[in-house]
Write a sequence for this structure.
């Protein structure tokens, strides 16, 4: 069961952008922030990125958890730690995905959410 959402808050965008920044600091690749508010009620934003290896996937996910914790928000659920091919972090209003590059291509999550608006971000490393 999902934790009740407090509503669509401006804080969600701040968290999404902080996720993207933290991922970039761990050299994640092709970082995309999607505003899914108009196409789904499961969250406000998806942040999606790629990584070269299972070790990098884990490092990116850990870096994002730490960065968002510093903002006072915790990760309510996560999955994928066993093989680190795809780790998903649930911050309730923001869902963060980090994939090994091959898995990202195979699952095509950006294509699944193709109707979502891409959020313009300042230059993010990665």
């Amino acid at each position: 069961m999902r934790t009740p959402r407090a509503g669509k808050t401006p804080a969600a965008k701040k968290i999404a952008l902080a996720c993207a920044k933290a991922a970039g600091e761990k050299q994640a690749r092709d970082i995309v922030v999607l505003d899914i508010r108009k196409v789904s009620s499961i969250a406000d934003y998806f942040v999606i990125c790629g990584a070269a290896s299972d070790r990098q996937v884990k490092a990116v996910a850990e870096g994002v958890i730490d960065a968002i914790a510093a903002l006072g928000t915790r990760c309510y659920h996560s999955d994928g730690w066993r093989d680190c091919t795809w780790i998903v972090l649930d911050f309730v209003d923001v869902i963060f995905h980090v994939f090994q590059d091959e898995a990202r291509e195979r699952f095509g999550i950006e294509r699944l959410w193709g109707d979502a608006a891409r959020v313009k971000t300042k230059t993010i490393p990665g």
Notes: Residues 1-9 have pLDDT under 50 and may be disordered.
